[in-house]
Amino acid sequence: MRIAIFFNLPAELSFEILEPYTKLFINIPKDALSSEANVFLAAVITLVQALIFNRIVNNHNLLAKPNYLPALLYITGTSLFLQFLVLSPALICNFLIIVIIDKFLKLSKTSSAMSTMFDVGMIIAIGTLIYFPFILMLIMLWLSLLMYRAFSWREWISGLIGFLTIFMFVAVFYYWNDKIDRFIDIWQPLTNKFPSNLQINYDDYLVLIPVGLIMIMAVLQLRENFFRSFINTRKAFQMLFFMFLVSIFSFYTKRGVTVAHFLLCVPPGAVLL
Question: Residue 218's pLDDT is what?
Answer without folding.
Answer: 63
